Amino acid sequence: MDTRYTYYPGCSLHATGIAYDKSMRAVFKKLGSELSELEDWNCCGATAYMSVQKTVAFAVSARNLALAEKTGDDVVAPCSACYYALKHTREGMQGDPELRVQVEEALAAGGLEADLSVEVRHPLEVLLTDIGIPRLVEAQTHSLDQFRPACYYGCQIVRPFGAVDEDPELPMSMENLFTALGARPVDYPPKVRCCGGMLVATMPEVATELSTDLVDWAVAREANCIVTVCPLCQSNLDLINVTKGGNGVSHQLPVLYFTQLIGLAIGCTPEEVGMQHALIPPAAEAPPVRGEPLTIAGLREG
Amino acid sequence: MKTLDPLAGPIAPGVLSKTEQELRTAFLEEIDRIPGGGRLNQCIQCGTCTASCPVSHAMDITPRQVIAMFRAGAIEELLESRTIWLCASCYHCTLRCPAQIQVTDLIYALKRIAIEEGIFPKRFPVHVMSETFTKNVKRYGRNYEVGLLLRYFLRTKPLGLFAQRRAGYALWRHGRIKLRPDKIKNIEQLQKIIAKAETFDLPQEKVAREKVTAAVGYESIGR
Q1: Do B93 and B49 contact (CB within 8 A), yes or no?
Q2: What's the confidence (pLDDT) of residue B10?
Q3: Which of 4-43 (A) contact B at CB < 8 A?
Q4: What CATH number does domain B10-124 carry, 1.10.8, 1.10.1060, 1.10.3470, 1.10.10?
Q5: For residue A98, which residues of chain B lie inside 8 Å, CB to CB?
Q6: What's the confidence (pLDDT) of residue A255?
Q7: How far is Cα B196 from Cα B218, in angstroms, rounded to an integer?
């Protein structure tokens, strides 16, 4: 397959979310799809810019869409906030002619134009629709049967646009994917609840409460890891391992990206998928052969 | 920061102070520019937004009350509450609202008015985060996490930095902290785009704010 995508990593994937970046690249490479990083991309604006200036927030985000139109491939944005901001910009401009004129004028000041021809997509949806579960299973070299993940979707990929599932209240796509790959996902009721987002810096006591709840739920359901789709969710939940959260208990629960788990299943090494960056180090033993369980320290017995 | 005027808020049914009239006009202008903003009229005060909000327990005014207070003409009081700065943009209220009100986007509109007007809750400098973020983007084109957090804590609560030391060290040890900011190559282009876009945001709102409407209170909601 020679599918090509324009990759929009976003600011987090160059720093705290570096493992997401590594695993994205590794998985897409292994599956024969080409991810080419958007040349000279800028910040999507996230949730902060919209709080200060509206048209500027749309224009900042729209520069990326304009740059992406040069190749015309779909934009893949792994960070939930980037996915939301870029998609919101595209849909906002399409739905509001006045805003569109203003943003187009702003882009023109920088010598750019946007005809909004490229789609904005999340990698989970890309992997499930363009590649599909059957091909992922076909590409599988390692069993995931030691994993009991709590699949955590968080906010902005399910709301308000609904990237992956028909049911925004109870998405099941990650559960279906990982079950097909041999893992045993647990029932995880708070899967679409908020992790606290940027409140981790501005209102840490509130954010910690939310993240601690999410980790406690996963432990109560006897999950041996949490799987996330967003760099901010990952670091918020992962940091509970270090800061012990609201109730002073550290569960030492690995928090992984869904791409890391897929990567391990299709034969990427733990280093290739950035396991070394997880705060609870899932240090892997010798590479397993097909059908044999992965030995990863730090995982509870399932 | 403005102090709370005891005359702010409704003086009598249908009669508002001048500040409130101005804030109301500014807010109506803002929500008119949000897709579906007019649906605010259709709020039935069912409380689904409050019940769905993950942080409503920490708010002094709940999301349902935000809409009620706007209708009652107490916007200044609303801007002085912690509520709008507690919203983490999770969109649960927006998803579930039976009247399809874009509650999250309304909160964003309130944040913008608060920053524009300089009205904030006392000893609650959370808005500094968004302002620091936008400065970073204007300067580098990207958000630099370390710089953002350092600047935010130094400007608002230097001791908070100390509380974050364990988290910071753990991230650094695992290669997740970048020591210098990423700067995009064509920063001039981005700055030109931002400068042009700002002309649509700032002056128009200023002009709108100068006019004082004669019709206030419940009449202006029903338009």
Answers
A1: yes
A2: 55
A3: 11-12, 14-19, 40-43
A4: 1.10.1060
A5: 33
A6: 94
A7: 37
Same fold, A4-123 and A139-277: no
Phi, psi of A110 (to 5 degrees): -100, 10
pLDDT at B193 over 90: yes
Q: Which chain B residues are closer than 8 Å to A170 by Cβ?
A: none
Q: Do B55 and A40 touch (CB under 8 A)?
A: no
Can you tell me the distance from the alpha carbon of A102 to that of B204, in angstroms, rounded to the nearest whole number?
Answer: 13
What is the C-alpha to C-alpha distance for residues A19 and B155, in angstroms, rounded to an integer? Answer: 31
Tell which phi-psi region holds residue A290, choosing left (phi > 0), alpha (psi between -120 and 50) or beta. beta
- The sign of the CA dihedral A34, A39, A40, A44 is negative
A202 touches chain B (CB under 8 A): yes
pLDDT band at residue A2, thresholds of 50, 70 and 90?
Answer: low
Q: What is the pLDDT of residues B11-33, one digit of tens each?
A: 566 667 777 777 777 777 776 66
CATH 2.70.170.10 is right for the domain spanning A4-123: no
Chain B contacts in chain A segment 150-169 (CB below 8 A): 155-156, 159-160, 168-169
The CB density around residue B127, as the number of other CB atoms within 10 Å, is 22
The kind and range of the H/E element at B202 are helix B187-210
B107-153 pLDDT per residue, tens: 998 898 888 888 888 888 888 989 999 999 999 999 988 888 888 88
Hey, where are the domains in chain A? 4-123, 139-277
Residue A20's pLDDT is what? Answer: 97
Q: Is A45 on the interface with B (CB under 8 A)?
A: yes
- A287 falls in which pLDDT band (50, 70, 90)? very low
The domain limits of chain B are 10-124, 127-201
